[in-house]
Amino acid sequence: MSPRRWTIKELLEVTADYLEKKEIDRPRLCAEILLCHQLKINRVKLYLAFDQPLNEREVSGYRSLIKRRLNREPIQHITGVQEFWSMEFIVGPQVLIPRPESELLVEQVISLYKAGGQTEESGPTVLDLGTGSGALAVSLARELGGASLWASDISPDALDIAGKNVKRHGVEDRIQFIHGDLWQPFKEKTFTFDFIISNPPYIAIEDYDSLPPEVRDYEPRLALDGHNQGMFYIEKIIMEGADYLNPGGWLLIEMDPVQTSKALELMEQGNCYGEKRRIRDYSRNYRVVMSQKAVVS
Ligand SMILES: C[S@@+](CC[C@H](N)C(=O)[O-])C[C@H]1O[C@@H](n2cnc3c(N)ncnc32)[C@H](O)[C@@H]1O
After folding, report:
1. Mutate to test the pocket of ligand 1, among 82, 139, 154 (most ligand atoms within 8 A of CB)
2. How far are the Cα atoms of 32, 55, 75, 133 from residue 46, in angstroms, in the given order?
3. How many other CB atoms are found less than 10 A from the CB of residue 212?
4. Mutate to test the pocket of ligand 1, among 81, 94, 95, 178 (most ligand atoms within 8 A of CB)
5. For the CA atoms of the chain, what is the radius of gyration?
6. Under 8 Å CB-to-CB from 218, ≥6 apart: which residues?
7. Global pTM?
8. For 236-281, how does the pLDDT look when each residue is reduced to its tens digit (9 = 90+)?
């Protein structure tokens, strides 16, 4: 008997049902994305080809991708990309998969810069501390034409991926990469920044084991583990951040909603910061805490 010839429509239906039974998140979407990846087509083309029969090689390739997803490998590791700020970024096990809520950091920098009334020519200086895939720095480079950006990370493997992303989006001459531990590489530098943004590791160690397997088993612990109550890096960034800001410059940090009030308290200490705010994400949770370095007259 010759093997069954599946059409795209049939294969998607059977796969989505199976993924749902196995409790895979958004099963139909997952089935479609992975079939697009296997066939190297986009979703519009997939819908237009619903009745097209697939050959054995295509079906068996698709089966291998589904098997990986059933092992709870993130879909982005299978396709190798993630969309952020309407651009496609290369991702892999070396970097955190950029999350939609981090777009808030990009939005806020743009809005603060525009509210400051500066001209595009003079451009702000921006540091992305813990850049990972480089998604935040690349997005700001694309949005703020005159900006000069620095992007740092302790992980050389992450910087390697970020380097690929800056080339992919044509901003390699606008972003300087720096390898090192938090503020360490900036201690010797003579310049300071108009904006410092960071999405640091902020998962509380107490919560680490209960993360979904896609995150816990596949994304880098170095990008996630914020140690005690998730505050280790947030505290260091706040306590020393003002030393690396220009007067009137802004520090913006993404964190878990429960960490935001403690972060604001830390910003109160030391009298380095003037205005302080916390901003909600699209789910109405406080997500970003920001503060302006005081201008001493
Ligand atoms: C939560 S990820 C954020 C990645 C990226 N900025 C984003 O928003 O998608 C945190 C990043 O900080 C980096 N990191 C962890 N510890 C660090 C340290 N001590 N110094 C500098 N970077 C660090 C990790 O390698 C990781 O890339």
Report:
1. 154
2. 8, 15, 18, 29
3. 12
4. 95
5. 22
6. 72, 73, 74, 77, 93
7. 0.95
8. 999 999 999 999 999 999 999 999 999 999 999 967 899 999 999 9
